[in-house]
Amino acid sequence: MITKSTIPSDEDLTAFIDGELTVEEAARVEAIVKQDESVAERLEFLARASLPFEQAFAPLLQEAPREKLERLLAAIPARESANTRSAPAATRRRFLGALAASLVAGIAIDRAVLGLGRGFPAKDENSEWRAVVADYISLYTEETLASPTPARESQAAQLAPLDEKLGLSLSPEAVSLPGVDFKRALLLQYDGKPLAQIAYLDPETGPMALCIVRSDAGPKAPDLESRKGMNIVYWSNGEHAFMLIGHATADRMAAIADGVRGRVAA
């Protein structure tokens, strides 16, 4: 149950976006989003990453100026009574409407980051997905991953959908990291492709994640970069691109990545 003091999980935010929460839960999430910028950013990311905005908002982006959208959004409360539709549906429509307006205002930035527009081709597909993941992981805190480490059976159950979508064989042993606690495995989406995120909590440096996406860019030896104050070790084989991201030192991240790299091959 979501309370006023609870930070909504990704599952809660996804249910909010899909209009699946109760009236009371949706109202609490909406209040938290208004008060907590990090939760609002995470909600926007989940909405952008999982919904077909290019198709859904193409007519708006091409035909409706920002002023027209703002007038339409301002008129919604006056036209629609709370008695005619459920609160979750109303919340969802207001959120998506506001996001549509923000997309119109900042479409060039969104296209550059997410590769939504054909007129803005990505120079480096693998670089772009790493940037998106880094933006998302930068929102994580120790409290985000404070839940107990799940048992092996639960870890295997969480990894199974990732295997099915990505064509991998990920066991709890294959994705274990030395001195770092497994917390959860999530199936996300980037640019229409499944994206696996395995989140960990390092007792010394905080959140860490191993992320995997399908890629036909070809094999690439491990390399290192920094984004959002975190170190990233990234590599690829013939079918997948991988990245290990966290706040540990570059040497430690490289050593951890070297250990897990041979265990997560297709």
Notes on the protein architecture:
- It is a single chain.
- By secondary structure, the chain is an alpha+beta fold.
- 47% of the residues lie in helices and 19% in strands.
- The chain has eleven helices and six strands.
- The chain has a six-stranded antiparallel sheet with strand order 1-2-3-6-5-4, with helices on both faces.
What's the helix-strand series? HHHHHHHHHHEEEEEEH
Distance between the termini: 38 Å
> Poorly predicted ranges (pLDDT <50, ≥5 residues)?
51-57, 79-87, 100-123
- Give the number of helices: 11
Task: Strand order, main sheet: write it out.
Answer: 1-2-3-6-5-4
- Using the CA coordinates, give the radius of gyration: 20 Å
What global shape is seen? globular
The class by helix and strand makeup works out as alpha+beta
Question: Beta-strand percentage?
Answer: 15-25%
Summarize the amount of helix as a percent range: 40-55%
Q: What's the story with the biggest beta sheet?
A: 6 strands, antiparallel
Question: What is the residue-mean pLDDT, rounded to a whole number?
Answer: 77
Question: What is the strand tally?
Answer: 6
Oligomer: single chain
